[in-house]
Amino acid sequence: MSTVFSLSATIFQQPIAEISHVVGRKPAFLVVLAVFAMGSIVAATANNMAALLVGRCLQGFASGGSVLAAIVLTDLIELRDRATWLSVQNSIQAAGLRWLFWINLPPIAISALGLGLLLGFDRPEIGVLAGLKKVDWVGILIFMPSAVAFLVPFTMAGIVFPWSSWKAIMPLVLGITGLTSLALHQRYIAKQPMFRASLFRKWVTVCSFMGQAVFGVCVNMIFYYLVVFWSGIRGFNEMLTGVALLPETISIPLAAIICGLTMRKTGHIRWAVLIGWPLTSISIGLLWFMDVSTPLAALIIINVGVGLGAGTVVSALNVTMLATTNRSDNGHAMAMGFLFKSAGMCLGIAIGTAVFTVQMESRLSDIEDAEMTAESFLRVLKEVKQDPASQEVIVRTLRILWAICSALSGLVGILCCSCKYPMLEPRSPEKPEQTAESTVDIESARSSDIGGPPVKAHQHV
């Protein structure tokens, strides 16, 4: 279920961002909200797995369109102020119970109304149809099936079919071949490439993209398998398990907002990187010591540390991507960062499931009279979670996942900490503050996106 959602978000994210440069943010955003509402209704009314998958797929498409919110912020707000607003955006969390599908609808309606009334319609002077002709449609058509072919084996191999099966090998080969051809097309053929080479000219920007991917891997893996820990090791029911995840779900947005405000105040990014990455890697490493006898206070402190580190890191990564790219590339940089994060989330589910399944099956074979697979073990988790031998199996398996996340965050953290970071320039004193009556000129960013003359857009704030 989560795989369908993450996969849809990943493959549609970049095309949605690319088309929004031409048709405008407002119509693209409204379409995304409409699709999300449709997906919520389908998922809420689903009476079988096929219908629920369709609903989650539609929601995944709309989730890919969430990058438009970050792009709009880059259009309207000065670089130094974006640190705060992007951190607020990152604080929004999602949930997935049936009644929560319905609860999505009122916020969607309010958002659509607000966008319709407050966000101007930024239309390029050359016209939408002429702009659409300049979109890198060939790149989009190569990217989407190639991304699906590449990610499907990682999300299904070892679970639905073995890695040695042609069902895993053939899509992987096709995906690699397609992505290679996409890189060649973007480099030598595309006149207005969807993936701009200018985004990868600075090592610090590349490290930020890698950091987004690792953030996606670690956050998804940790959240998914903390549920297993709290339910299987500590014996919590569904309600208490949700409460036990609050140390992360509260501390991540809190740290992101505080980090954003501090970067806006000081103009410095590097401090957040030097604090966030080590705190994240060390805190994830401390998850190794969580077991059935760990005091609850210690568990809370460890998990709060994970959330504070992750929130600081994601805030610093978002600002770094914008501060180290050209103003005209900022929208593309945000889309690329979201793409890396979504791909990382897909891989986080895949890696976690593969490692957990293999380790569980291996360790269950060491338990006398254990005749169940990892999948069946999880299905009867409520019945066997009081068995000390079974609890030990889960603890040892989870420790492998914590070690993987800690190592990944530590490695990428070292790369990020070794980079040089620019200062966030203060607001120019000659520029007056924007008021409700003023308009914002989006410079010529969109013109560089579609190859036409400068855009004269009036965004009513």
TrEMBL record:
<dbReference type="InterPro" id="IPR020846">
    <property type="entry name" value="MFS_dom"/>
</dbReference>
<dbReference type="Pfam" id="PF07690">
    <property type="entry name" value="MFS_1"/>
</dbReference>
<dbReference type="GO" id="GO:0005886">
    <property type="term" value="C:plasma membrane"/>
</dbReference>
<keyword id="KW-0472">Membrane</keyword>
<feature type="transmembrane region" description="Helical">
    <location>
        <begin position="27"/>
        <end position="46"/>
    </location>
</feature>
<feature type="transmembrane region" description="Helical">
    <location>
        <begin position="271"/>
        <end position="290"/>
    </location>
</feature>
<feature type="transmembrane region" description="Helical">
    <location>
        <begin position="296"/>
        <end position="317"/>
    </location>
</feature>
<feature type="transmembrane region" description="Helical">
    <location>
        <begin position="140"/>
        <end position="162"/>
    </location>
</feature>
<keyword id="KW-0812">Transmembrane</keyword>
<dbReference type="InterPro" id="IPR011701">
    <property type="entry name" value="MFS"/>
</dbReference>
<feature type="transmembrane region" description="Helical">
    <location>
        <begin position="58"/>
        <end position="79"/>
    </location>
</feature>
<feature type="transmembrane region" description="Helical">
    <location>
        <begin position="239"/>
        <end position="259"/>
    </location>
</feature>
<feature type="transmembrane region" description="Helical">
    <location>
        <begin position="99"/>
        <end position="119"/>
    </location>
</feature>
<feature type="transmembrane region" description="Helical">
    <location>
        <begin position="400"/>
        <end position="421"/>
    </location>
</feature>
<feature type="transmembrane region" description="Helical">
    <location>
        <begin position="168"/>
        <end position="185"/>
    </location>
</feature>
<protein>
    <submittedName>
        <fullName>Major facilitator superfamily domain-containing protein</fullName>
    </submittedName>
</protein>
<feature type="transmembrane region" description="Helical">
    <location>
        <begin position="206"/>
        <end position="227"/>
    </location>
</feature>
<feature type="region of interest" description="Disordered">
    <location>
        <begin position="426"/>
        <end position="461"/>
    </location>
</feature>
<dbReference type="GO" id="GO:0022857">
    <property type="term" value="F:transmembrane transporter activity"/>
</dbReference>
<feature type="domain" description="Major facilitator superfamily (MFS) profile">
    <location>
        <begin position="1"/>
        <end position="385"/>
    </location>
</feature>
<keyword id="KW-1133">Transmembrane helix</keyword>
<dbReference type="InterPro" id="IPR036259">
    <property type="entry name" value="MFS_trans_sf"/>
</dbReference>
<feature type="transmembrane region" description="Helical">
    <location>
        <begin position="338"/>
        <end position="358"/>
    </location>
</feature>
